[in-house]
Structures are given as C-alpha cells and as structure tokens.
Amino acid sequence: MFHEETVLQYTKEKLLANECNKKRFIELLTKALQKANICVQQAVEDADLTIVNSAISVAPQYDYCGRGKTPDSYYSTTSSNHKFSNELLFIHAISGCDITSALFGQSRNKFISLFLKLEELLNRAAIFLNPQATTEQVTEAGENVLVALYGGDLATQILDELRYHSFVKAAAKTKFNLARLPPTTDAAQLHAMRNYHQVQTWLGKEKDPLKWSWMHTPSGLFPKKSENDPAPESLLQCISCTCKKSCTNACGCRKAGLHCSLPCKHCIGQSCENPMPVILYNESEEGDAPAPIYMVDEQLECEDIEL
User: Fold this and answer.
1) How many Å from the N-terminal Cα to the C-terminal Cα in the chain?
2) Angle, to 10 degrees, between the axis of helix 185-202 and the axis of helix 135-149?
3) If we measure between CA atoms, which residue out of 94, 95, 202, 192 comes closest to residue 136?
4) Looking at residue 239, what is its pLDDT?
5) Which domain of life does the UniProt lineage start with (predicted)?
6) Torsion angle of C-alpha atoms 181, 182, 183, 188, degrees rounded to 10
7) Burial class (CB in 10 A: 0-12, 13-18, 19+), 160
8) Nearest-CA neighbor of 183 among 127, 132, 228?
9) What beta strand segments (E) does the chain contain?
C-alpha cells in the first residue's frame, strides 16, 4: 500500500490502471485538499452531473469575471432549437455518452437532424422524460427511434427485420463493417433502458439501476449484455480473426461484437485479450441452482509499490 511519501517506480498510467490504486490515490488527494481548507465533493456516479450541480448551487456567491470589450456568449436549451429543446437530455443519452452505451458510427448531429426531420419522434422522446414510464413503453419508444435512425419505416418495420435487410445489402459490397448494422431488438431495448435510467438521473429522479439494464459486478455496476445471439449460430461460426498478437481494437471478432473462438487462427479464443468470459459456479445455500461467481481480473488486486 502506498502513501503520500511514496516514490513511484513506474509510470502514472500504470499506477492508475489498477482500480485499487486509483481509489487509494483519490483518498489521499481528498485528504490533502481538505487539509488545505478546500471543499471536496466526490462524485458517486456521474462526475459531470456533480460538477454542474455544484457549480449551480454556489454560482450566486461568486462574481463573474470576463475580459473587457469581449462579447459574452450565453447558451440555453431555449435558444438551441424550440422544436426539441425539452428532448436534449434524451438525444444526448441515446446518441451515446460515457455513462450509458453508444451506437457505432452514429453521430449526435445525425440524431439532431433526425428529430428536425421527423417531429413524430418527439412523442417517443417524451416517454423518457416521464418518471412513471414502464419498461415496455421505454423499450418500444427506443426501438422506434432507432428504426427511424437507420432509415426504416416506423409504421411497418422492426429492428431485426431492418437489420437483416441491411445485412443483405451490405453483403453485396466488396467490404463492409458488421458494426454498422442496426442493433438487434434485444440490444436496442437494453440500450433504451439504460438511457431512460440516465435521463431520469439527470432530472433528479432516482431509479433502481438493476431494473434498468445494469448489473452488479465485483468492480461495480456493469451494463447488461444481450442474451440473444447477434446472428444465427451457423453464421457466427464463419466469423474469426487472424490476429497474431493480443486481439485488441483491430480484431475482426471484437469489431463484430463477438468473443474470439476456436476458428480463430492463432489465439483459438484463449490466448488473447478477447476470450470467452469464464464463469465459475458454486452451490447456492438452497442447493436448487448454482450461483455464478465471476472471475475477477488479477489486475484489480491491489499492488504494493516499493519505496
């Protein structure tokens, strides 16, 4: 365990890559700032939300500093666009932020253009602002928005059908990226539920994350993954990679949203950074069903730093 006087023997990046070391560093930094009479507030979840709320709460106590002859620019939700100013939180969440999840290759500007073009989507977005909305309402509204985003017909098409037709068109091309296909209905519903939970959090309405597509892990909350396969098993068996090292971001399996498997030429789904998850099972107290025990990465264990 390191302390204030510890001299690092390796880089800062390596130190903070370990979650236990990061927590220890935050504790030491908090104590040092408080000792210097600096008010410290540690964010539990979303740091940006904590920063904004803290700034707003003390804003009247401080004078605004600016430069002479330099015009001030003020921005607000009422001046951005009157058509969907109330839905900005939903657009920010569903288009991808660091607290929920994101769609590959779909920019925030595309979402804004979509809402400018199809005003009927405002009714779907309004559901995410309703604290009494049900999971069925949220998932249906989220799927409708994504169908429109990928060019489908809101009245007649569902995501899985649109995904299939998009795949058929893409397969005729010389090169195409599977990640650009519309998500499966299952994945889209999980994405929509996380977005609803986040929008409600921003609005000050606390919701149980475990009911909105999050799950507990040894490292904290983690987004739930789709339980259904992204494609038929016979098709998935055809996807493999030829990575010679690590299987990182350039890995074909990883780009397709899959774990490496036996058909992979070099790693065989084992000796790489994208293997199938390993789950050990232990007998539960009732003895009826096994209780899962998730394997924890060894890097999460606290490291001792030599002085």
Assistant:
1) 10
2) 110
3) 192
4) 77
5) Eukaryota
6) 160
7) middle
8) 228
9) 214-217, 220-223, 279-283, 290-294
Q: Kindly report, residue by residue over 35-65, the tens digit of the pLDDT.
A: 999 988 888 777 888 888 888 888 888 776 6
Alpha helices in 174-222 (DSSP H): 185-202
Say if residues 104 and 124 touch (Cβ distance below 8 Å): no
pLDDT in tens, 232-284: 777 777 778 888 878 888 888 887 778 888 888 788 877 788 887 654 444 44
C-alpha torsion sign, points 37, 42, 46, 49: negative
pLDDT (tens digit, 9 = 90+) per residue, 155-212? 888 998 999 888 888 878 878 788 888 999 999 999 999 999 999 999 989 899 999 9
The distance of Cα 55 from the centroid of its chain, to the nearest Å, equals 25
